[in-house]
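tool_call predict_complex ligand=zinc ion
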Amino acid sequence: MSRLSCGLCLLAGLLFSVWPTPSTSIDSTQFWLKIRASDKFQRSVIADTGVAIQWIKDDYVIAIGNLQEKKELEKLGWVEFSSSVAEIKDFPSKDSEFHNYTELTASLNDLQKKYPQLVSLSSIGSTVQGREILALRISGHLDQGAQMPAILFMGGHHAREHLSVEIPLLIVERMLEEYSKGNERIRRLIDSREIHLIPAVNPDGLEYDIASGRYQMWRKNRTQNRDGTFGVDLNRNYSYGWGTGGSSRDPDSETYMGTAPFSEPETRAIKKYIEDHQNISTLLSFHTFSELILYPWGGKYDPISDQRDRNVHITMANKMAEWNGYVAEQTSELYIASGDTTDWAFGEHKIISFTFELDPSSSRGGGGFYPGPDVIPVVVNKNKEPMLYLIEYADNPYRVLDAN
Ligand SMILES: [Zn+2]
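tool_result ok
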Protein backbone atom coordinates (compact mmCIF):
# COMPACT_ATOMS: atom_id res chain seq x y z
CA MET A 1 0.00 0.00 0.00
CA SER A 2 1.10 3.44 -0.65
CA ARG A 3 -0.59 6.69 0.00
CA LEU A 4 -1.23 9.40 -2.48
CA SER A 5 2.35 10.49 -2.12
CA CYS A 6 3.32 7.57 -4.30
CA GLY A 7 1.96 9.32 -7.32
CA LEU A 8 5.03 11.50 -7.21
CA CYS A 9 7.41 8.64 -7.25
CA LEU A 10 7.35 7.92 -10.92
CA LEU A 11 9.10 11.16 -11.69
CA ALA A 12 11.83 10.44 -9.23
CA GLY A 13 12.13 6.96 -10.70
CA LEU A 14 13.20 8.52 -13.94
CA LEU A 15 16.53 9.42 -12.43
CA PHE A 16 19.58 7.65 -13.66
CA SER A 17 19.14 3.97 -13.05
CA VAL A 18 21.63 1.27 -12.32
CA TRP A 19 21.18 -2.45 -12.29
CA PRO A 20 22.41 -4.42 -9.31
CA THR A 21 24.27 -7.65 -9.79
CA PRO A 22 22.11 -10.67 -9.01
CA SER A 23 23.32 -12.35 -5.86
CA THR A 24 23.95 -15.57 -7.68
CA SER A 25 26.62 -13.94 -9.78
CA ILE A 26 27.80 -11.28 -7.40
CA ASP A 27 31.43 -11.91 -8.28
CA SER A 28 31.09 -11.98 -12.03
CA THR A 29 31.74 -8.51 -13.30
CA GLN A 30 28.74 -6.65 -14.60
CA PHE A 31 28.97 -3.29 -16.26
CA TRP A 32 26.80 -0.27 -16.26
CA LEU A 33 26.79 0.93 -19.84
CA LYS A 34 25.70 4.09 -21.50
CA ILE A 35 25.22 3.17 -25.15
CA ARG A 36 24.47 5.42 -28.10
CA ALA A 37 21.22 4.49 -29.84
CA SER A 38 18.70 6.74 -31.49
CA ASP A 39 16.00 4.38 -32.72
CA LYS A 40 14.35 1.07 -31.98
CA PHE A 41 16.49 -0.72 -34.58
CA GLN A 42 19.71 0.29 -32.89
CA ARG A 43 18.22 -0.57 -29.54
CA SER A 44 17.31 -4.00 -30.87
CA VAL A 45 20.91 -4.56 -31.93
CA ILE A 46 21.94 -3.65 -28.40
CA ALA A 47 19.34 -5.91 -26.82
CA ASP A 48 20.45 -8.75 -29.08
CA THR A 49 23.87 -8.75 -27.45
CA GLY A 50 22.16 -9.87 -24.28
CA VAL A 51 22.50 -6.74 -22.18
CA ALA A 52 19.55 -5.67 -20.05
CA ILE A 53 18.36 -2.26 -21.15
CA GLN A 54 17.33 -0.25 -18.11
CA TRP A 55 16.42 3.08 -19.47
CA ILE A 56 15.78 4.54 -22.88
CA LYS A 57 16.50 8.14 -23.78
CA ASP A 58 16.23 9.81 -27.21
CA ASP A 59 19.81 9.18 -28.20
CA TYR A 60 21.14 6.62 -25.76
CA VAL A 61 20.20 3.77 -23.45
CA ILE A 62 21.44 2.70 -20.06
CA ALA A 63 22.05 -1.00 -19.86
CA ILE A 64 23.76 -3.61 -17.77
CA GLY A 65 25.85 -6.27 -19.38
CA ASN A 66 28.75 -8.58 -18.83
CA LEU A 67 32.28 -8.20 -20.15
CA GLN A 68 31.64 -10.03 -23.39
CA GLU A 69 28.56 -7.98 -24.16
CA LYS A 70 30.44 -4.82 -23.35
CA LYS A 71 33.23 -5.77 -25.77
CA GLU A 72 30.75 -6.56 -28.49
CA LEU A 73 29.17 -3.13 -28.17
CA GLU A 74 32.56 -1.43 -27.97
CA LYS A 75 33.43 -2.97 -31.32
CA LEU A 76 30.42 -1.17 -32.75
CA GLY A 77 31.77 2.02 -31.24
CA TRP A 78 28.54 2.78 -29.44
CA VAL A 79 29.63 2.65 -25.80
CA GLU A 80 29.93 6.13 -24.36
CA PHE A 81 30.57 5.18 -20.79
CA SER A 82 31.05 2.04 -18.74
CA SER A 83 31.64 1.28 -15.12
CA SER A 84 31.63 -1.82 -13.00
CA VAL A 85 28.35 -2.33 -11.19
CA ALA A 86 30.24 -3.66 -8.21
CA GLU A 87 31.63 -0.20 -7.53
CA ILE A 88 28.25 1.31 -6.98
CA LYS A 89 25.83 -0.57 -4.88
CA ASP A 90 24.81 0.21 -1.37
CA PHE A 91 22.79 2.59 0.74
CA PRO A 92 24.04 6.16 0.93
CA SER A 93 26.51 6.20 3.84
CA LYS A 94 24.16 8.11 6.15
CA ASP A 95 21.74 5.18 5.85
CA SER A 96 24.30 2.38 6.03
CA GLU A 97 22.52 1.00 9.08
CA PHE A 98 19.77 -0.28 6.79
CA HIS A 99 20.24 -3.79 5.44
CA ASN A 100 21.07 -4.29 1.81
CA TYR A 101 20.28 -7.74 0.48
CA THR A 102 23.71 -9.17 1.24
CA GLU A 103 23.60 -7.85 4.79
CA LEU A 104 20.06 -9.08 5.25
CA THR A 105 21.05 -12.55 4.10
CA ALA A 106 23.99 -12.50 6.51
CA SER A 107 21.78 -11.36 9.41
CA LEU A 108 19.25 -14.10 8.80
CA ASN A 109 22.02 -16.69 8.58
CA ASP A 110 23.50 -15.37 11.81
CA LEU A 111 20.18 -15.78 13.59
CA GLN A 112 19.96 -19.38 12.49
CA LYS A 113 23.51 -20.01 13.68
CA LYS A 114 22.95 -18.26 16.96
CA TYR A 115 19.60 -19.91 17.76
CA PRO A 116 19.62 -23.26 15.97
CA GLN A 117 16.92 -24.62 18.29
CA LEU A 118 14.59 -21.73 17.54
CA VAL A 119 15.27 -20.56 14.01
CA SER A 120 15.07 -22.18 10.62
CA LEU A 121 16.05 -20.23 7.51
CA SER A 122 14.87 -21.18 4.05
CA SER A 123 14.31 -19.79 0.59
CA ILE A 124 10.68 -19.72 -0.47
CA GLY A 125 11.43 -19.02 -4.12
CA SER A 126 13.47 -16.89 -6.48
CA THR A 127 12.89 -13.40 -7.76
CA VAL A 128 12.85 -12.25 -11.37
CA GLN A 129 16.62 -11.70 -11.17
CA GLY A 130 17.30 -14.90 -9.30
CA ARG A 131 17.66 -13.69 -5.76
CA GLU A 132 16.34 -15.98 -3.06
CA ILE A 133 13.31 -14.78 -1.13
CA LEU A 134 14.22 -15.70 2.42
CA ALA A 135 11.93 -16.80 5.22
CA LEU A 136 12.66 -17.33 8.87
CA ARG A 137 10.59 -19.81 10.79
CA ILE A 138 10.74 -19.40 14.55
CA SER A 139 9.42 -21.71 17.23
CA GLY A 140 10.48 -23.28 20.49
CA HIS A 141 9.45 -26.56 18.86
CA LEU A 142 10.51 -26.27 15.25
CA ASP A 143 9.81 -29.93 14.54
CA GLN A 144 6.19 -29.51 15.62
CA GLY A 145 5.72 -26.13 14.00
CA ALA A 146 2.95 -27.25 11.68
CA GLN A 147 0.81 -28.20 14.68
CA MET A 148 1.18 -24.80 16.28
CA PRO A 149 -0.82 -21.65 15.66
CA ALA A 150 1.14 -19.59 13.17
CA ILE A 151 1.54 -15.98 12.17
CA LEU A 152 3.26 -14.41 9.18
CA PHE A 153 5.11 -11.09 9.19
CA MET A 154 6.26 -9.63 5.89
CA GLY A 155 8.17 -6.55 4.79
CA GLY A 156 9.58 -5.04 1.66
CA HIS A 157 6.84 -5.62 -0.88
CA HIS A 158 7.73 -2.16 -2.10
CA ALA A 159 11.37 -1.51 -2.91
CA ARG A 160 11.89 1.93 -1.40
CA GLU A 161 10.10 1.08 1.85
CA HIS A 162 13.32 0.01 3.53
CA LEU A 163 12.02 0.63 7.03
CA SER A 164 9.44 -2.11 6.45
CA VAL A 165 12.32 -4.59 6.13
CA GLU A 166 14.13 -3.36 9.22
CA ILE A 167 11.29 -3.22 11.73
CA PRO A 168 10.00 -6.81 11.70
CA LEU A 169 13.57 -8.11 11.44
CA LEU A 170 14.79 -6.11 14.42
CA ILE A 171 11.76 -6.94 16.54
CA VAL A 172 12.18 -10.64 15.85
CA GLU A 173 15.89 -10.33 16.69
CA ARG A 174 14.98 -8.67 19.95
CA MET A 175 12.45 -11.37 20.76
CA LEU A 176 15.04 -14.08 20.22
CA GLU A 177 17.46 -12.23 22.46
CA GLU A 178 14.86 -11.92 25.19
CA TYR A 179 13.97 -15.58 24.81
CA SER A 180 17.57 -16.57 25.41
CA LYS A 181 17.72 -14.28 28.45
CA GLY A 182 14.75 -16.09 29.93
CA ASN A 183 11.96 -13.55 29.41
CA GLU A 184 8.96 -15.63 30.41
CA ARG A 185 6.35 -14.00 28.27
CA ILE A 186 8.53 -14.27 25.15
CA ARG A 187 9.42 -17.86 25.96
CA ARG A 188 5.76 -18.76 26.33
CA LEU A 189 4.90 -17.15 22.99
CA ILE A 190 7.76 -18.61 20.99
CA ASP A 191 7.33 -22.04 22.58
CA SER A 192 3.66 -22.18 21.65
CA ARG A 193 3.65 -20.59 18.19
CA GLU A 194 5.17 -20.86 14.77
CA ILE A 195 6.27 -17.37 13.73
CA HIS A 196 7.14 -16.72 10.10
CA LEU A 197 9.12 -13.75 8.90
CA ILE A 198 9.70 -12.82 5.27
CA PRO A 199 11.49 -9.51 5.69
CA ALA A 200 12.09 -8.70 2.02
CA VAL A 201 9.46 -9.90 -0.41
CA ASN A 202 11.04 -7.82 -3.19
CA PRO A 203 14.83 -8.00 -2.86
CA ASP A 204 15.38 -7.12 -6.54
CA GLY A 205 13.59 -3.86 -6.01
CA LEU A 206 15.36 -3.24 -2.73
CA GLU A 207 18.77 -3.62 -4.37
CA TYR A 208 17.78 -1.61 -7.40
CA ASP A 209 16.66 1.24 -5.19
CA ILE A 210 20.09 1.55 -3.59
CA ALA A 211 22.31 0.37 -6.42
CA SER A 212 23.76 3.71 -7.37
CA GLY A 213 24.35 4.92 -3.85
CA ARG A 214 21.57 7.37 -4.57
CA TYR A 215 17.97 6.40 -4.00
CA GLN A 216 15.94 5.60 -7.08
CA MET A 217 12.57 6.00 -5.34
CA TRP A 218 11.70 2.60 -6.81
CA ARG A 219 8.51 0.81 -5.78
CA LYS A 220 7.90 -2.24 -7.97
CA ASN A 221 9.78 -5.45 -8.62
CA ARG A 222 12.17 -5.71 -11.59
CA THR A 223 10.20 -7.65 -14.14
CA GLN A 224 10.96 -6.50 -17.65
CA ASN A 225 7.61 -5.66 -19.17
CA ARG A 226 6.73 -6.24 -22.81
CA ASP A 227 7.01 -2.56 -23.64
CA GLY A 228 10.53 -2.32 -22.25
CA THR A 229 9.54 -0.75 -18.95
CA PHE A 230 10.27 -2.40 -15.64
CA GLY A 231 8.33 -3.59 -12.71
CA VAL A 232 5.02 -4.85 -11.42
CA ASP A 233 3.48 -3.51 -8.22
CA LEU A 234 3.55 -6.64 -6.09
CA ASN A 235 0.89 -5.23 -3.78
CA ARG A 236 -1.53 -5.06 -6.73
CA ASN A 237 -0.67 -8.50 -8.10
CA TYR A 238 -2.56 -10.78 -5.70
CA SER A 239 -5.60 -12.46 -7.17
CA TYR A 240 -8.48 -11.48 -4.92
CA GLY A 241 -10.35 -8.73 -6.75
CA TRP A 242 -7.33 -8.28 -9.01
CA GLY A 243 -7.64 -5.42 -11.45
CA THR A 244 -10.88 -4.02 -10.07
CA GLY A 245 -9.66 -0.54 -9.27
CA GLY A 246 -6.77 1.43 -7.86
CA SER A 247 -4.26 -0.40 -9.98
CA SER A 248 -3.02 0.25 -13.49
CA ARG A 249 -2.87 -1.69 -16.74
CA ASP A 250 -0.04 0.55 -17.92
CA PRO A 251 3.28 -1.26 -17.43
CA ASP A 252 5.02 2.03 -16.81
CA SER A 253 2.72 2.90 -13.94
CA GLU A 254 3.78 2.76 -10.32
CA THR A 255 0.76 0.59 -9.59
CA TYR A 256 1.00 -1.73 -12.60
CA MET A 257 -0.99 -4.84 -11.70
CA GLY A 258 0.93 -7.22 -13.96
CA THR A 259 -0.33 -9.28 -16.88
CA ALA A 260 -2.35 -11.61 -14.64
CA PRO A 261 -2.96 -12.32 -10.97
CA PHE A 262 0.19 -13.82 -9.48
CA SER A 263 2.12 -13.15 -12.68
CA GLU A 264 5.22 -12.43 -10.56
CA PRO A 265 7.52 -15.00 -8.96
CA GLU A 266 7.58 -12.96 -5.75
CA THR A 267 3.81 -13.02 -5.21
CA ARG A 268 3.64 -16.64 -6.33
CA ALA A 269 6.22 -17.51 -3.68
CA ILE A 270 4.11 -15.84 -0.98
CA LYS A 271 0.98 -17.58 -2.25
CA LYS A 272 2.63 -20.98 -2.14
CA TYR A 273 4.16 -20.33 1.26
CA ILE A 274 0.82 -19.42 2.77
CA GLU A 275 -0.89 -22.38 1.11
CA ASP A 276 1.83 -24.66 2.45
CA HIS A 277 1.29 -23.36 5.99
CA GLN A 278 -2.38 -23.86 6.66
CA ASN A 279 -1.81 -23.05 10.32
CA ILE A 280 -1.24 -19.36 9.58
CA SER A 281 -4.17 -17.57 11.20
CA THR A 282 -2.86 -14.03 11.21
CA LEU A 283 -0.77 -11.89 8.92
CA LEU A 284 0.87 -8.49 9.10
CA SER A 285 2.41 -6.90 6.03
CA PHE A 286 4.71 -3.97 6.74
CA HIS A 287 4.86 -0.99 4.42
CA THR A 288 5.80 2.65 4.76
CA PHE A 289 4.70 5.33 5.31
CA SER A 290 1.76 7.23 6.85
CA GLU A 291 1.37 5.70 10.34
CA LEU A 292 -1.69 3.62 9.60
CA ILE A 293 -3.11 0.24 10.55
CA LEU A 294 -5.15 -1.05 7.62
CA TYR A 295 -7.44 -4.02 7.22
CA PRO A 296 -9.61 -5.43 4.39
CA TRP A 297 -11.11 -4.49 2.16
CA GLY A 298 -8.85 -2.43 -0.04
CA GLY A 299 -10.50 -3.37 -3.31
CA LYS A 300 -13.98 -2.23 -2.36
CA TYR A 301 -15.70 0.26 -0.10
CA ASP A 302 -17.95 -2.34 1.53
CA PRO A 303 -16.86 -3.44 4.97
CA ILE A 304 -16.20 -7.13 5.62
CA SER A 305 -19.72 -8.52 5.52
CA ASP A 306 -19.48 -11.09 8.31
CA GLN A 307 -19.87 -9.19 11.54
CA ARG A 308 -17.47 -11.29 13.60
CA ASP A 309 -14.80 -11.20 10.91
CA ARG A 310 -15.21 -7.47 10.65
CA ASN A 311 -15.12 -6.96 14.40
CA VAL A 312 -11.97 -9.04 14.88
CA HIS A 313 -10.13 -6.80 12.45
CA ILE A 314 -11.50 -3.59 13.93
CA THR A 315 -10.92 -4.66 17.53
CA MET A 316 -7.36 -5.78 16.90
CA ALA A 317 -6.52 -2.73 14.80
CA ASN A 318 -7.84 -0.37 17.47
CA LYS A 319 -5.97 -2.21 20.18
CA MET A 320 -2.69 -2.06 18.27
CA ALA A 321 -3.25 1.63 17.59
CA GLU A 322 -3.16 2.22 21.34
CA TRP A 323 0.48 1.13 21.30
CA ASN A 324 1.84 2.62 18.13
CA GLY A 325 -0.42 5.63 17.89
CA TYR A 326 -1.26 4.92 14.25
CA VAL A 327 -4.66 5.53 12.70
CA ALA A 328 -6.70 2.33 12.29
CA GLU A 329 -9.04 2.10 9.33
CA GLN A 330 -10.24 -0.02 6.46
CA THR A 331 -7.76 0.16 3.56
CA SER A 332 -10.29 1.60 1.11
CA GLU A 333 -10.82 4.57 3.42
CA LEU A 334 -7.67 5.86 1.73
CA TYR A 335 -8.72 4.94 -1.80
CA ILE A 336 -9.60 1.77 -3.66
CA ALA A 337 -6.56 -0.44 -4.17
CA SER A 338 -7.24 -3.91 -5.53
CA GLY A 339 -5.01 -6.96 -5.59
CA ASP A 340 -3.20 -6.35 -2.31
CA THR A 341 -1.85 -8.96 0.07
CA THR A 342 -4.41 -8.58 2.82
CA ASP A 343 -7.50 -8.73 0.61
CA TRP A 344 -6.22 -11.99 -0.82
CA ALA A 345 -5.11 -13.50 2.48
CA PHE A 346 -8.43 -12.75 4.14
CA GLY A 347 -10.64 -13.18 1.07
CA GLU A 348 -9.16 -16.51 0.03
CA HIS A 349 -7.88 -17.94 3.28
CA LYS A 350 -9.77 -16.17 6.06
CA ILE A 351 -6.44 -15.12 7.54
CA ILE A 352 -6.87 -12.13 9.82
CA SER A 353 -4.78 -9.62 7.92
CA PHE A 354 -3.29 -6.20 8.50
CA THR A 355 -1.09 -3.74 6.70
CA PHE A 356 1.00 -1.33 8.75
CA GLU A 357 2.10 1.86 7.10
CA LEU A 358 5.01 2.71 9.38
CA ASP A 359 6.51 6.08 10.26
CA PRO A 360 6.70 8.84 9.36
CA SER A 361 3.21 10.25 9.17
CA SER A 362 3.99 12.38 6.16
CA SER A 363 6.74 13.18 3.74
CA ARG A 364 7.04 16.70 5.08
CA GLY A 365 9.69 16.78 7.77
CA GLY A 366 9.61 13.05 8.43
CA GLY A 367 11.63 11.98 5.43
CA GLY A 368 8.90 10.00 3.68
CA PHE A 369 10.30 6.75 2.34
CA TYR A 370 13.79 7.72 3.48
CA PRO A 371 13.44 8.81 7.11
CA GLY A 372 17.04 8.01 8.06
CA PRO A 373 18.32 5.61 10.70
CA ASP A 374 17.34 7.63 13.76
CA VAL A 375 13.71 6.54 13.55
CA ILE A 376 14.57 2.84 13.60
CA PRO A 377 14.69 2.36 17.40
CA VAL A 378 11.61 4.54 17.87
CA VAL A 379 9.58 2.56 15.35
CA VAL A 380 10.84 -0.75 16.77
CA ASN A 381 9.69 0.27 20.25
CA LYS A 382 6.21 1.30 19.29
CA ASN A 383 5.55 -1.73 17.09
CA LYS A 384 6.91 -4.48 19.27
CA GLU A 385 3.79 -4.69 21.44
CA PRO A 386 1.42 -4.89 18.44
CA MET A 387 3.48 -7.78 17.05
CA LEU A 388 3.46 -9.61 20.38
CA TYR A 389 -0.28 -9.05 20.65
CA LEU A 390 -0.89 -10.64 17.23
CA ILE A 391 1.36 -13.56 18.16
CA GLU A 392 -0.49 -13.98 21.44
CA TYR A 393 -3.87 -14.24 19.73
CA ALA A 394 -2.71 -16.26 16.74
CA ASP A 395 -4.20 -19.41 18.29
CA ASN A 396 -7.64 -17.88 17.84
CA PRO A 397 -7.87 -14.19 16.98
CA TYR A 398 -11.60 -14.28 17.71
CA ARG A 399 -10.72 -14.44 21.40
CA VAL A 400 -10.31 -10.68 21.27
CA LEU A 401 -14.08 -10.42 20.87
CA ASP A 402 -14.71 -12.40 24.02
CA ALA A 403 -12.21 -10.29 25.90
CA ASN A 404 -14.43 -7.24 25.34
ZN1 LIG B 1 4.07 -0.06 0.23
